[in-house]
Amino acid sequence: MPGTAAGLTAGARTLEAALVDRARRRDEAALREIMQANNRRLFRLARGILRSDSDAEDVVQETYVRAFTHLDGFLGESALSTWLSRIAINEALGRARGRRPQVELGSVPEATLEAQIIQFPLSSAATDPEKSMAQREIQRVVERAVDELPETFRMVFIARVMEGMSVEETAGLLGTKPETVKTRLHRARTMLRENVEKKIGPVVMDAFPFAGERCERLTEAVLRRLGIGA
């Protein structure tokens, strides 16, 4: 969803308003739809601040509880996704500063929330164990490199690159100017590239292995062609 209500088409605004209205009435399907549409973004934004999967999951759940118990406060001045993102960022920042905001839980059916929250991170089983292992290692290198970016650059990178948010949407979400977003994104990409290159060096050195059975097989084949050995 675009970041501002003005950026939504008339049809999209109507659909979102209807969805929010259903959610206000605790319609389970509406709650599910909202969460499934926003889970990944909220998780990534929260993790960008806390750098912890488990803490980020907690923030996502708290965000939904806070949002669903205060839907009357959503006036449609921004897209629902942006409103939820701001709640998640504030919740994550509060935790990062050692504060645990109290959230009223009684207004939302507990079973509904627990049933609908999608666990993170989501992944599918790979059919090739070796390829899967290599991909996981590369993913870990990139994740560590992103985690090590200073927070101001990390949040812009996550919003713009990982979530595909526009410059204007990112600026509005983070409370900064579009020009600042562009500058920080450029700097984040430079820092990330340098960090990944530094970290991936040892991994690259082990790429394209030629040892074990493959090495032995080739050695024996060459010796046979040369008439050496059995």
TrEMBL record:
<dbReference type="InterPro" id="IPR039425">
    <property type="entry name" value="RNA_pol_sigma-70-like"/>
</dbReference>
<keyword id="KW-0238">DNA-binding</keyword>
<feature type="domain" description="RNA polymerase sigma factor 70 region 4 type 2">
    <location>
        <begin position="141"/>
        <end position="192"/>
    </location>
</feature>
<dbReference type="InterPro" id="IPR000838">
    <property type="entry name" value="RNA_pol_sigma70_ECF_CS"/>
</dbReference>
<dbReference type="InterPro" id="IPR013325">
    <property type="entry name" value="RNA_pol_sigma_r2"/>
</dbReference>
<dbReference type="InterPro" id="IPR013324">
    <property type="entry name" value="RNA_pol_sigma_r3/r4-like"/>
</dbReference>
<keyword id="KW-0731">Sigma factor</keyword>
<comment type="similarity">
    <text>Belongs to the sigma-70 factor family. ECF subfamily.</text>
</comment>
<feature type="domain" description="RNA polymerase sigma-70 region 2">
    <location>
        <begin position="35"/>
        <end position="100"/>
    </location>
</feature>
<keyword id="KW-0804">Transcription</keyword>
<protein>
    <recommendedName>
        <fullName>RNA polymerase sigma factor</fullName>
    </recommendedName>
</protein>
<dbReference type="InterPro" id="IPR007627">
    <property type="entry name" value="RNA_pol_sigma70_r2"/>
</dbReference>
<dbReference type="InterPro" id="IPR013249">
    <property type="entry name" value="RNA_pol_sigma70_r4_t2"/>
</dbReference>
<dbReference type="InterPro" id="IPR014284">
    <property type="entry name" value="RNA_pol_sigma-70_dom"/>
</dbReference>
<keyword id="KW-0805">Transcription regulation</keyword>
<dbReference type="Pfam" id="PF08281">
    <property type="entry name" value="Sigma70_r4_2"/>
</dbReference>
<dbReference type="InterPro" id="IPR036388">
    <property type="entry name" value="WH-like_DNA-bd_sf"/>
</dbReference>
<dbReference type="Pfam" id="PF04542">
    <property type="entry name" value="Sigma70_r2"/>
</dbReference>
